[in-house]
Design a protein that fits this description.
alpha+beta, Rossmann fold, Dna Ligase, domain 1, D-amino Acid Aminotransferase, Chain A, domain 1, 3 domains, 8-stranded antiparallel β-sheet, 5-stranded parallel β-sheet, about 30% helix, binds adenosine-5'-diphosphate
């Protein structure tokens, strides 16, 4: 096992990795930018190193600074968390060249799944169902129109290098397709420095259901069941739960098998997530693989009893998986709310600033993953996630009751948060009935 690890991230996921390390008796080195200099959570690390100014490009995304910190601090491995450098194949390679273990999949697997068209090709080769769509990058408006007519409207344009719901446009006819084609390309170029877009059939009223996988360095692979992440705004997840209210054991088995076939095809190792859309008729289609630990991993930890971050570290250190597929059993129901520093009454505008009151929920069935406490300053430079409120109960009805109670207890002052939005969702009859799809938020919560 590693003696000392560097955590190349910030905020709640840095705290999450710190906790896993502490329980494994591993020393921690945490990097921070000048914007996080006074953050209280830095105290949880054994050692901290400033890696640059607030701007991510010059700190959390700056490979030379992070490698220099790792060398100075003499660590054996780097945990990248999610976001920032976690899906940067080049960074994983640089770590390898510098004799530092990257806690994540091999660079080749990151590169394959980082390109959504390559990922689709791998899924097809593995025999998994994919959404009908273009074979490669669209080269012209004419090609887009021809393909869209062939597949049938509506279609969705997606960035090959996409992530975080950016670079996507839905088109219902030729005119919206032509406009969408140029908008999606411009947005993709700005966000990912890669204007490549492709086209897929737009699945109507789908649920987003994803499978968590773990694989060791010897090629043993298991999946840890699914997460339903259908409560989204602008293609970004807000609430996740496991198990999915929409899966029966038959679909769960088929989806799990498909997920394993896809990652096996890519010689995957460590933690990853295979994402699918499930249509109202019960057909599912592969959409992408996230080659890292995800924000919503805690719901799977709660229902399986497996500490995914600790497993990531064990796997990277060369340990064999300690369980087989038949050992994985889902217990009860877990739900997570992403608490963001955003104002739900002002179109979810980010609300950086000083937290003056932080009254956090607790009690039976409640887990709170956060880096915040009263007095914390939320810098404007990074994403707006301030906490993940997770509940775990024997069944979905009880989990909803616990979440409502926990949301009622949660009081934050100084900044606006998405807590009031979550309270409304947990009062909504369709959500309580488990009858939702990815359009739920847009349909029921008129966004000004
Ligand atoms: P990103 O990498 O930006 O997160 P994804 O491919 O994971 O993009 O898609 C994010 C979300 O966009 C999905 O959860 C779903 O809500 C929507 N989406 C993506 N592809 C389709 C599709 N073909 N039909 C309908 N919705 C889609």
């Amino acid at each position: 096992m590693f003696r000392r690890i560097l955590i190349a991230n910030r905020g709640e996921i840095a705290v999450r990795v710190l906790r896993a390390c502490r329980e494994l008796n591993i020393e921690t080195v945490l990097v921070y930018s000048e914007a996080d200099r006074n953050a209280q959570y830095l105290r949880l690390a054994d050692e901290t190193i400033c890696i640059g100014p607030p701007m991510s490009a010059k700190s959390y995304l700056d490979i030379p600074s992070i490698i220099a910190a790792a060398e100075i601090a003499d660590v054996e491995a780097i945990h990248p968390g999610y976001g920032f450098l976690s899906e940067n194949a080049h960074f994983a390679e640089v770590c390898h060249e510098c004799n530092i273990r990257f806690i994540g999949p091999p660079p080749e697997a990151i590169a394959s799944f980082g390109d959504k068209q390559r990922a689709r090709a791998i899924a097809k080769k593995a025999g998994a169902p994919t959404v009908p769509g273009s074979q490669g990058i669209l080269t012209s408006e004419e090609e887009a129109i021809r393909l869209a007519r062939e597949i049938g409207f509506p279609v969705i344009l997606k960035a090959v290098a996409g992530g975080g719901g950016r670079g996507m446009r839905v088109a219902h006819n030729d005119v919206s397709l032509i406009n969408g084609f140029h908008q999606a390309r411009a947005e993709a170029e700005a966000a990912f420095k890669n204007a490549g877009v492709y086209l897929e059939k737009f699945i109507e009223r789908p649920r987003h259901v994803e499978i968590q996988v773990l694989g060791d360095r010897e090629g043993n692979l298991v999946h840890l069941g699914e997460r339903d992440c259908s409560i989204q705004r602008r293609h970004q997840k807000l609430i996740e739960e496991s198990p999915s209210p929409a899966l029966n054991p038959d679909i769960r088995k088929k989806m799990g098998d498909a997920a394993l076939a896809i990652v096996r095809e890519a010689k995957y190792e460590n933690a990853g997530t295979v994402e699918f859309l499930l249509d109202p008729a019960g057909n599912f289609y592969f959409i992408e693989v996230n080659a890292r630990v995800q924000v919503e991993h805690p719901v799977t930890e709660m229902v399986t009893g497996i500490d995914i971050v600790q497993e990531q570290i064990r796997i990277a250190a060369g340990e064999r998986l300690r369980f087989r597929q038949e050992d994985i059993v889902l217990h009860g129901c877990a739900i997570e709310c992403r608490i963001n520093a955003e104002d739900p009454d002002a179109n979810f505008r980010p609300t950086p600033g000083k937290v003056t009151t932080w009254m956090a929920p607790g009690g039976p069935g409640v887990r709170l993953d956060t880096h915040i406490s009263a007095g914390a300053e939320i810098p404007p430079n990074y994403d707006s996630l301030v906490a993940k409120l997770i509940v775990h109960r024997n069944n979905r009805r009880d989990a909803i009751a616990t979440m409502r109670r926990a949301l009622a207890e949660f009081h934050v002052e100084g900044i606006k948060t998405t807590i009031p939005f979550h309270r409304k969702v947990f009062d909504h009859a369709d959500f309580i009935a488990g009858d939702v799809d990815t359009g739920f938020v847009e349909r029921h919560f008129s966004m000004k």
